[in-house]
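Run log // design_07
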């Protein structure tokens, strides 16, 4: 019996993609990759998340321009977009909070979590937003200056914030709104959380060039955290620094390796094609790798776990990968007006 195409049955589904320098959110037909529409948004958008209950897209606006530790100023807004009409319905100003980046959703409780950077006399943290009223209802300190990515466990009771230069991952109790643990790692990037483990990309990508020649660097890879003990119990080694992480509905851990060489003219380094590395969340075995664009920065997947989407910020592309065969299916070019390009991703199933 011939296996059904991973594109089958996706008519009406949409892929939404952020372009930082666009500054835009572009919409594509998930069955054909055909461009549908482009929406202009505030500069400079970063992450994107789909809320299936409200059928809204939440988009963080992080900096006036640039990126972490190399920007012209931190912004304070989260843009709310109607996923079906593809129009902005509200811009939430989180001031005095600034540098909103990571997004995590507890649809059952109607809570959106947004990581924000610290400032004078105040550590970074996580702002809690009521998704029905679209109003901030709380803040949880993470005791680190730059919490960036944020993820919650399947029960919606525990959150994890990776901190680029701080030597730990912050663990927060979402019900009590308190910091409960710090997991020691040499800086961290993206993460994904299952019922039993957290998968953390470490070390911080920027720190990879902060070591003198000949000095020992932390080994690149994915730290596996036992959620019960809040300790690192294993490491999945990678050849290059890992930035984004994602866990599919079928139990695959997806990691985006950025292949970077030092470049005196660029803090981002000299880019070579990146790698999408695929592991089993249960056996921790490497399933395979696929070449993707320059500097993969965000990974998402279809709800059935058959397709992976990898946004690469330097090439401003999205690679579509068949996770059953680990074959690349398409590369979508994302419009930009300079550097950087493609960043946040969200898969929007058709309304039923």
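design_07 sequence
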């Amino acid at each position: 019996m011939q296996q059904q195409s991973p594109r089958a049955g996706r008519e009406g589904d949409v892929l939404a993609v952020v372009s930082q320098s666009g500054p835009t959110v572009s919409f594509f037909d998930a069955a054909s990759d055909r461009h549908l529409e482009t929406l202009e948004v505030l500069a400079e958008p970063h992450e994107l998340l789909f809320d299936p209950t409200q059928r809204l897209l939440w988009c963080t606006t992080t900096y006036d321009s640039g990126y972490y530790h190399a920007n012209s100023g931190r912004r304070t807004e989260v843009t709310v977009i109607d996923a079906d009409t593809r129009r902005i319905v509200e811009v939430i100003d989180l001031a005095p909070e600034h540098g909103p980046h990571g997004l995590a959703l507890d649809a059952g409780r109607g809570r959106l979590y947004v990581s924000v950077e610290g400032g004078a006399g105040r550590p970074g943290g996580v702002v809690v937003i009521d998704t029905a009223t679209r109003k901030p209802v709380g803040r949880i300190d993470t005791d680190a200056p730059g919490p960036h990515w944020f993820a919650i466990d399947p029960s919606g009771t525990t959150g994890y914030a990776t901190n680029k230069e701080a030597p730990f991952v912050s663990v927060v109790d979402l019900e009590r709104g308190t910091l409960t643990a710090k997991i020691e790692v040499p800086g961290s990037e993206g993460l994904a959380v299952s019922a039993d483990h957290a998968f953390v990309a470490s070390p911080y990508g920027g720190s990879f060039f902060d070591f003198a020649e000949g000095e020992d660097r932390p080994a690149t890879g994915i730290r596996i955290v036992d959620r019960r003990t809040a300790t690192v119990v294993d490491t999945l080694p990678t050849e290059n620094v890992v930035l984004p992480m994602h866990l599919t509905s079928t139990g695959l851990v997806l990691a985006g390796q950025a292949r970077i060489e030092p470049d005196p003219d660029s803090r981002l380094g000299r880019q070579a094609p990146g790698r999408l590395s695929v592991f089993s969340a249960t056996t921790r075995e490497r399933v395979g790798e696929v070449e993707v664009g320059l500097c993969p920065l965000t990974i998402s997947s279809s709800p059935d776990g058959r397709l992976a989407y990898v946004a690469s910020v330097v090439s401003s592309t999205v690679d579509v990968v068949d996770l059953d065969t680990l074959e690349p299916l398409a590369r979508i070019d994302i419009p930009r007006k300079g550097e950087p390009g493609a960043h946040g991703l969200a898969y929007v199933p058709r309304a039923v």
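The chain has one domain: 14-348.
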